[in-house]
Amino acid sequence: MGIGKRLEYLMKSRNTNANELAQKIGVRASTIYSLIQRDSNRMDINLIIKIAHALGVTADELLSEDLVDESPKTLAAHFDGKDYTPEELEEIRKYAEFVRSRREE
Question: What is the DSSP letter of 14?
Fold first, then answer.
């Protein structure tokens, strides 16, 4: 994952957009859009520092591979008798218990 994806994540988490960020750091919005689109791992160090400062993070945080966690936070499922037989629902319940028990070991 490149800087563009991390930049996009940070902007979303701070409720800002490329136009606002560009104005804040004195570059064209097309520069920010280009960084996001290319998702490169290369960027001018001065631009990295300006962006990081504007977003309230360090340059290290902006460059960190650990910044963006794309794994789902919640997974929910609802099973009722409309689509499954009682036997299938019981099998689903048992499988869910099995998955949960592996986590608790």
Answer: T
Residues 6+ apart with CB under 8 A from 43: 3, 35
- Please tell me the pTM assigned to this model: 0.61
Provide the H-helix boundaries in 56-85: 59-63
Query: Virtual CA dihedral for 55, 16, 73, 84, nearest 10 degrees?
Result: -170
Number of structural domains (the chain) is 2
* Alpha-carbon torsion (48, 49, 52, 54), positive or negative: negative
Residues 10, 46: one domain?
A: yes
pLDDT at residue 61, rounded to an integer? 85
pLDDT at site 19: 95
Token pair recorded at residue 83: 């689509």
Contact 11, 18 (CB under 8 A): yes
With beta carbons less than 8 A apart as the criterion, state whether 57 and 10 touch. Answer: yes
